[in-house]
Each structure stands twice: as C-alpha cells, then as structure tokens.
Amino acid sequence: MKKGLIAIIAIIALIAIVGFMVGPKFYNTAIDLQENATSQWANVESSYQRRADLIPNIVNTAKGYAEFEQSTLIKVTEARSKATSIQIDPSNITPAQLKQFQQAQQGLTSALSRLLAVFERYPDLKANENFKELINELERTENRINVERNRFNETVKPYNKHLKTFPNNVINSFIGNFAEMDYFEADAGSEDAPNVEFDFGS
After folding, report:
1. Helix, strand or coil for residue 187?
2. At what angle do helices 2-63 and 129-164 cross, to 10 degrees?
3. Which residues pair with 187 in a beta bridge?
4. How far is the C-alpha of 109 from the C-alpha of 105, rounded, in Å?
5. Buried/exposed 133-149: b ≥16 CB within 10 Å, e otherwise
6. In this predicted model, what pLDDT tens digit does every residue of 23-69 receive, in sequence order?
7. Which of 3, 87, 115, 165 is deepest in the core (most CB within 10 A)?
8. CA 95/CA 93 separation, integer angstroms
9. CA 193, 83, 182, 171 torsion-angle sign
C-alpha cells in the first residue's frame, strides 16, 4: 500500500516538475505569437479604414456631376457606414465576428464595384484629375488590404499551431487562457484584390 502511495506521489511530483518547466515556456510563447497576430490585425483594420476614408472623397467628386446616379452613391455610403460600424477586439477575434466583419467589407466591395462600373459612362468624370488620383489610391489600398489580410493569416498560423501541438494542447486545456484565431477566407471569386483600374485614355 505504501509503495503504491509513493508511486502516486512520485508521478504527481513528476507532473508538477514538468508543468513548472514547460508551462511558462508555453505561456510566454503563446503570448508572443498572439501579440504578433493582434498587431497584424491592426494593420488589416488600418488598410480597411484607409479605404473607408477615401470613399467620401470619391462620392463627393461624383456628386459634382448632376446627372450621376444618386441611388448608386447612396448604396456606397450605406455600405461604408455598415462596414465601419463593426468593431472587433483583436485579442478575442471569434469566427462569428470575423465572418460578420468580412461580410460587411464584402458588401462595401460590391457597392464600390457597381459605383466604378457606372463611372465608365461618364467620360468627363473619368477625365477629372482629382478623380483619377482617388481611383489610383483606391487601387493601391485594395492591394494593401489583400497584402495585410495574407500577413494576418501568416501570423495566425504559428499561433494556432502552437496551441494544437502536444503537449501544448494539454497545458492549454488546464490554463484555458488561449483560444485559436480564425483565418481570413478569400471571398468567393475574389482571391485577388478587386480590379479597380480604368482606361483613362478613352
């Protein structure tokens, strides 16, 4: 009986020793990787915010052309309002939050696509130098959004892998401090940044 008790105590002591050795390393590494991912999320939000900031200028430029479709401008403005209203805590990005964020941003992307298609029917507006620069800046911003989203996924991957691998998954089940982060998924039919180029020479 005593031998069995001693064996149990020895096992518990061994587990405690291993825990003290491995636990802090797991925790500190998880914190570092989580910080990398949340920091990159800030870059994603910044890129989307840059796009949102450009839209009022684009809409106001179009409003200067009295015949321009007002309903199209209203849809863009409404989509922008919805997209900018969604705030996400970068330290606790849930799949549902990320999905909602993506849907709102995709709604804005779709509204912008319709707006840019309509612009093609207004050669005077296309010739406007201010408008040209706004569209060029929008294109650069769309490309930056794509880059930052990909970088976010790249920073989330090692964090999630760290949580899943043994014995980290066991340690985390006891600690319970860390949850996996979701990835950005490419919108259907738009794995690349949206094409917003115009032929201003026409």
Report:
1. strand
2. 170
3. 190
4. 6
5. ebbebbbebbebbbebb
6. 678 888 999 999 999 999 999 999 999 999 999 999 888 887 756 67
7. 115
8. 7
9. positive
- Residues 79 and 127: their CA atoms lie apart, in Å, by 26
Q: What's the CA gap between 95 and 30, in Å, rounded? A: 19
pLDDT digit string, tens, across residues 131-164: 889 999 999 999 999 999 999 999 999 999 999 9
101, two tokens: 């964020």
Amino acid at 200: F
pTM, rounded to two decimals = 0.79
Closest by Cα among 101, 85, 105 to 93:
101
Residue 59 in tokens: 């809409």
Q: Which two tokens stand for residue 37?
A: 């991912």
Q: Under the phi-then-psi rule, with left for phi > 0, alpha for psi from -120 to 50, and beta for the rest, what region is 176?
A: left
